[in-house]
Structures are given as structure tokens and as C-alpha cells.
Amino acid sequence: MTIVTDYQNLIIQAGGQLSQQAIDAHVTFSDNLISQGLWDKLLEVWTSAGSNLSAALIKLKYQDNPCMVGVNFTENDYSPSTGLQGGVGKLLKTGFIPANHFSNGSDVSISAYLKIVNGGGSTRNYLGASASFRLFTVTSSNTFASALGNAPLSLVNQANNNSFLLASNLPDGSSYLKSNNKILAKKDGILNPTIPSSELYLYQQNGATASYINTGIINFYAIGQGLTDSESTNLYKAVVDLNASLNR
Fold first, then answer.
1. What is the domain extent for residue 30?
2. Which tens digits make up the pLDDT trace of 17-72?
3. pLDDT tens column, 83-100
4. DSSP assignment of 134-183
5. Are 173 and 188 in contact (CB under 8 A)?
6. Count of domains in the chain?
């Protein structure tokens, strides 16, 4: 309960509120992650919850900054029942710099829940710190892809709404990309993946052109140590349950 109490207090300080339903949902979510040994493996967790935009920018777990910095978002872009709607010129700055928290790229994971996917016609970045550290959709093919310091992993025609997207590098040299707990692509023998020293953005990749901005809806993000197949399954189930408890 301490985790959620601290989260709720930050939301109140930011001028928002957290309903009892949302409190209960976050208690169950954090308890699940703790019981499965996942909480300590995740460095940041953002659930896009609360009564208004200020509340939605607060992270459930953070390293350097408890609050996202929204660029060009307005109150009308956020709904507790869906999440935060992206758009041209809009992005979230996480304040998280991967190089400050990972000694190498062989033990890292990033994930996001995409309520609405912005697909087709152009490359769209869901989150990223560099061109080699991001989750994105490939140009014109509606293809989820990931890059964690290595060549992108991707598979055609898997970019759907209500998708939990997760990419992970593991110390054994393997790397995989999942959507809704299904492995889309896998690679072995990744050597010394690079970790960027630039800040991680949501709805955009740091350093990318404005045309690559995602205009869909993201309502969850996490970054942490590499997750095994079974660990990512448990995280997927917990995130799906959280969203169901929040009626979105």
C-alpha cells in the first residue's frame, strides 16, 4: 500500500485525484509485480491514471523524476477511461537517461500498452531515446518493431489496437519482441548493445523528425532489466488486469 500511497500523494500534490477504484487497481497491480519478483526489475512504471492531465503525468515508479514533462498536451488530450491522446508536436519527456542506469545493453527491457495504434503511411515512434533504442511502427507496413542497441526486430501486420508491446535483451545474448504475449521476432548472439545517453521520450523518439510522432494513445510504459519469456508473460497479464480494473 505504501507504493500506491506515495503515488497518490504525488498526484494530489500535482493537483489531481485518484479514485478509490484506481487506488485498488494500483494496489493489486503493484502487489502482483512484487509477488512475482518483477517490481525490483522495473526501474520506471507509468500507468497514465488519475482525474486530469496533471495526475496522468505522475509515474507509479521512478528513478530521477516522478513526473513526465508534457510537451504541447492539453487537458482535452487526456481521459481516465482511455489514456493520453498523442498528436503532431506532442510528446512526453520521461527524464530517464538509459546510460545513467544501465552499464550495458545486454540486460534491458522496454514496454508500452498501445490503446490506439497510429499505423500505416509513415514510421511512428511510441517511445525511444535514439534510433537504436525505441519501440516503433515501420513505414507503410503496420509493422511493430523494436531496437535495443541492435538491429531492429520486426514482423509484418501485427500493429493492432490494444497491444502490449515489449522488447527485451537478455544476458545470454538473446533479444525478442512481443505483442500481447506473442513473440513476433527473436534474435540470438547480440554483442554489447549500445545504451544511449539521451533522454527517453514517449510518443516520439528523441532526435527524430516531427513526422515520426505517434498520434495514438499510450496508457502504460515501463523500462527495466531484461525480462525472460515467463516474466514478460506475468507483466503482460498484470497490465491487462490493471487496464480492465480501470475500465479502459
1. 2-245
2. 999 999 999 999 999 999 999 999 999 999 999 999 999 999 999 999 999 999 99
3. 999 988 899 999 999 999
4. EEEEETTTTEEEEEESSS-EEETT---SSEEEEEEE-TTS-EEEEETTEE
5. yes
6. 1
